[in-house]
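Table S2 (text version). Query chain:
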Amino acid sequence: AFDSYMIQVHDKQKKLVAIFDYRSSYKQLAKGNYTVRLHLRHDKVTLLQRKTSICIKVKQELSSKLSSTFYSTNEKAVKRSGKINRTTISKGQIMRIFIAHPSISKLKHIKEGWMVHGKFTAFPNSTVGTPIVYHVPPKPNKEESSKKSKKDVEDQTSMEKLEEELLLKKVSFAESIMKKKADDFQVILKGLLESSPDHLKVLELQLNYLNSQSKKKFKKIVAVCDHIAEVIDRDALAIFFGRLPKVQDDEDDEFEA
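Corresponding structure-token output:
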């Protein structure tokens, strides 16, 4: 712990406009550029040197409330289909509700990497609610992703394109007979796993089949999920979910202003 610390906020003309201490407080500032200076005091110079790069958490209240959508399953929330408009929960009944990310597209001042804090209330005008934190993901670069996809297609030879199309057709056909002709499906699935063991569509087909069984083989399901985690593009996955792992020193502190 430090002996003391102080936060000073200066405007573009280097004028001191706000001072904070260890207690969180709010200060209304006009639109513009500001410089935040953190002053620490401690006898150990080595401890101070480790704090040359430190995160300062700034809280800002939104001018209006954000709306979101509720779904009964995680799959529906991802696909944005079948939202819950109104439902009745009986006494003692347990119901799972999945909340989609809030509509922040109209709020242009919210930037990627920010955290939006809110609360979920079961009744209108209620002051008690469940805390919710939303990490604002980076905006997808449509131009860059389209260029990348076009380049991948151009790099493929005609034979590779044909093999990919045939594989997708086989997967689609296998999905259509999964429940109707289980024996034929297992033969097709076995052949697909032998020829394309790392293809995500094939692994997804296998996972859907295992989940559809009445007697689930959980060890097998976990093994397939582990395999998917190994072969999937982790960069694309992180961008899709809008979060990247944050590496932080355990000794680092966070100061609030």
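Notes on Table S2: The radius of gyration is 26 Å. The longest helix spans residues 158-176.
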